[in-house]
């Protein structure tokens, strides 16, 4: 349909805008920094709904990696090398536990452990994750509201080919008795222990059909002017959020923008390629559009991406911007272009 590039500046009209951002992983938190640095935007009108599909217990520590990354990003504590944990943190406790024979595998820092211990204690007492996060964001002096995609357990599971059976197959391909075996594993097993090197057959969001959205999150979606799906892994960071029935239903009546995490056929980072192929998608920005299209109004691709995505994409508008966020100026510029485009095309 139509391609638009940079637009005139409408920043004075940002002050009343209400925005909700869907976030997971490391891509979207960069864009969240961009929005958080737009002075004219009232941060009390900014809500973030976060993926909890990778939440897990490590010993007695409750790990909610994508939530903690958003908390640290909005409080300026985030380690921007890894996009998890607290910058300049120490790892005394982590190292000492290893000496006692308990390897947490994930490197949890000493300052980071305080946030996770706070969550763990309250969860054990039966508190709701959404209430705990709200206390933590206030404790960190964050104005924006932050919600888990659900207070119910929804777990991202990866179906992989069991390498052992695969090798047996190769060795004894004539032996009809040897069958390809599959393993259903946690995302962390796939990404941390197996370094994302397994052959992925499929991805599931266990229990998502029965999971309730958080009331405040649904309220904020309904009251928002614009919903932004950030440039994160569509399969393991955004789709778990969209798999919560009430959330997806609500978004259908809203103005929704999405930023592609893939430029042409190249992801900027991570295992998004293998995971998209496992769901039958080619690795391309066009496939990202396919994944979101039933709720999408504007799809943002990188200026370096080709225009052939335009062919038959229905009535969705393509906006081309610089989507490679190397510094705070890039992040702020991308955030501003999204809001400028919204004001010009949906507000006036
Ligand atoms: C394992 C990895 O995980 P995670 O850290 O959870 O990251 P995301 O789900 O956010 O996926 C990373 C996703 O983000 C894209 N990305 C990263 N930086 C940028 C950027 O500056 N611009 C842009 N358009 N996309 C960005 C990257 O390509 C990845 O696909 C994971 O799940 O991948
Ligand atoms: O790949 C890693 N991811 C680590 N993560 C990130 C996370 O577990 C996953 O990498 C992301 O969820 C990928 O989607 C942490 C997250 C935290 O909140 C705290 C500590 C870690 C530590 C690691 C780590 O050592 N290695
Ligand atoms: Mg992730």
The strand line-up of the biggest sheet is: 1-15-14-11-10-2-3-6
Which regions are unreliable across 5 or more consecutive residues at pLDDT < 50?
Answer: none
Strand content: 15-25%
Largest sheet: 8 strands, parallel
Radius of gyration: 21 Å
Account of the 3D structure:
With 348 residues, the chain is an alpha/beta fold. It has helices at residues 27-36, 65-74, 92-99, 110-124, 129-139, 163-171, 187-193, 215-223, 234-242, 245-251, 272-278, 285-292, 328-347, and strands spanning 3-4, 19-23, 46-50, 56-58, 61-63, 145-148, 155-161, 182-186, 200-206, 226-229, 255-259, 262-263, 266-267, 298-302, 317-321. The strands form 4 sheets. Strands 1-15-14-11-10-2-3-6 form an 8-stranded parallel β-sheet, with helices on both faces. The protein has a 3-stranded antiparallel β-sheet with strand order 8-7-9. β12 (262-263) and β13 (266-267) form a beta hairpin. The longest helix is centred in the C-terminal third of the chain and has 20 residues, at 328-347. The chain is globular. The model has no long low-confidence stretch (mean pLDDT 91). The structure holds the ligand C[C@H](OP(=O)(O)OP(=O)(O)OC[C@H]1O[C@@H](n2cnc3c(=O)[nH]c(N)nc32)[C@H](O)[C@@H]1O)C(=O)O, the ligand O=c1nc2n(C[C@H](O)[C@H](O)[C@H](O)CO)c3cc(O)ccc3cc-2c(=O)[nH]1 and magnesium ion. The site of the ligand C[C@H](OP(=O)(O)OP(=O)(O)OC[C@H]1O[C@@H](n2cnc3c(=O)[nH]c(N)nc32)[C@H](O)[C@@H]1O)C(=O)O has 25 residues, from α1 and α9. Belongs to the CofD family. It catalyses: (2S)-lactyl-2-diphospho-5'-guanosine + 7,8-didemethyl-8-hydroxy-5-deazariboflavin = oxidized coenzyme F420-0 + GMP + H(+). Homodimer.
